[in-house]
């Protein structure tokens, strides 16, 4: 499995992120995003280990502790940036200058894949929507993408036009039956370069059955090993829980994208998620890194949404993507027709936002 890690990210321990020594060289070149400010040189204590910087302020426990937005945003700043010839250095919704990200170059070869889990234990934050549309946006760059539906509800499968109750084989069979191969379960989608490993309600039984298995946390990693060379990016749509299925996804992944709805309860859930990530790093997958935190369902007209996004940026800084996904009526429509926003409404602002997100993700973990 490719051991690439992700620049601009840091290891999580407890509730807040901390720095780690630089990772070992990866198989793929890592492009570090431009930093907005120079990092202070770490001091070295007598024991020879680099000192860790003081972590940022903790996440708030109640709404009264939420600070007011510090960024002075104008109506123009809050508007989506879709003009390819327009200036890219204006302030974005995160209160930081928008980076001028280059168009991803077509890959010269396929694989080995970067495995990225879309994870948040809170439901309704846009995990499935992000998985489908980010996968489609990356596939537009010519990269081979596999989307794994790892939620028993089968929402990602439905979102790509597959009816879960009609499936003869699903990711459940791949996990629990040694005689089933990935090629028997993976199916192409209507989007070029995008394949799907579908799921249905059978997957809920795997959580119970895997408890009795030896090395149960590594089951998904085992079944993915043969297909890592066949793809550039593998995206795992995790269930809204921190159970054994999610732990399997984190163990099999190189990195995590955390979709975060811009509202207060979703913000509080970050502490529990980062605690789980820290445990997986310590005990199961030390190479696991945070690719980025993605603000979703953002409405810049509301003070509350701006407060939440501002607080996330204060706590997690460059780990927060510059791209923010705004509310739009187009997303429910795409679910009905069973295709991503990039093909249903390719010129919409939502499609441009996911293309910008694809550029950021590929800049942090270049695949292909």
Structure explained in plain terms:
- This protein is of the alpha/beta class and 368 residues long.
- 32% of the residues lie in helices and 14% in strands.
- The chain is built from 13 helices and 10 strands.
- The strands form 2 sheets. Strands 5-6-4-7-3-8-9-10 form an 8-stranded mixed beta sheet, sandwiched between helices. It has a two-stranded antiparallel sheet with strand order 1-2.
- α2 crosses α13.
- The longest helix is centred in the last third of the chain and has 20 residues, at 264-283.
- The chain is globular and about 55 Å long.
- The relative contact order is 0.21.
- The model is unreliable at 1-47 and 49-88 (pLDDT under 50).
Summarize the structure.
The chain has helices at 75-78, 127-139, 155-159, 171-176, 182-185, 203-209, 219-224, 244-252, 264-283, 303-316, 330-337, 341-344, 349-364; strands spanning 11-13, 16-18, 114-118, 145-150, 187-188, 194-197, 233-238, 255-261, 289-298, 320-326. With 368 residues, the chain is of the alpha/beta class. Residues 1-47 and 49-88 have low confidence and may be disordered.
């Amino acid at each position: 499995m490719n051991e690439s890690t992700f620049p601009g990210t840091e290891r999580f321990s407890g509730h807040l992120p901390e720095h780690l020594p630089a990772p070992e060289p990866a198989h793929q070149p890592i492009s570090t995003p431009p930093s907005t400010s120079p990092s202070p040189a770490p001091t070295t204590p007598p024991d020879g280990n680099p000192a860790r910087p003081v972590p940022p302020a903790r996440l708030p426990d109640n709404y009264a502790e939420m600070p007011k937005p510090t960024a002075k945003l104008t109506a123009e700043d809050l508007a989506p940036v879709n003009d390819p010839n327009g200036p890219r250095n204006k302030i974005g919704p995160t209160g930081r200058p928008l980076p001028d990200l280059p168009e991803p170059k077509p890959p010269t070869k396929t694989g080995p894949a970067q495995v990225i889990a879309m994870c948040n234990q809170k439901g309704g934050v846009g995990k499935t929507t992000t998985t489908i549309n980010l996968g489609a946006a990356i596939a537009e760059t010519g990269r081979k993408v596999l989307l794994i539906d790892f939620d028993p509800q089968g929402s990602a499968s439905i979102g790509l036009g597959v009816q879960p109750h009609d499936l003869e084989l699903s990711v459940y069979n791949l996990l629990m039956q040694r005689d089933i191969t990935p090629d028997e379960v993976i199916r192409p989608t209507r989007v070029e370069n995008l394949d799907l490993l579908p799921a249905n309600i059978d997957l809920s039984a795997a959580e119970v059955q895997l408890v009795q298995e030896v090395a149960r946390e590594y089951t998904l990693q085992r079944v993915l090993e043969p297909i890592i060379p066949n793809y550039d990016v593998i995206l795992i749509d995790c269930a809204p829980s921190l159970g054994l299925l999610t732990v399997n996804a984190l163990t099999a992944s190189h990195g995590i994208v955390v979709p975060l709805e811009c509202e207060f309860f979703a913000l509080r859930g970050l502490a529990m998620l980062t605690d789980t990530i820290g445990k997986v790093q310590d005990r199961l997958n030390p190479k696991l890194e945070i690719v980025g935190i993605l603000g979703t369902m953002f409405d810049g007209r509301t003070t509350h949404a701006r407060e939440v996004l501002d607080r996330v940026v204060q706590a997690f800084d460059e780990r927060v993507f510059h791209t923010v996904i705004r509310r739009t009526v187009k997303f429910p429509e795409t679910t009905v027709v069973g295709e991503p926003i990039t093909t249903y409404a390719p010129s919409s602002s939502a499609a441009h936002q996911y293309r910008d997100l694809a550029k950021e993700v590929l800049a942090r973990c270049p695949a292909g």
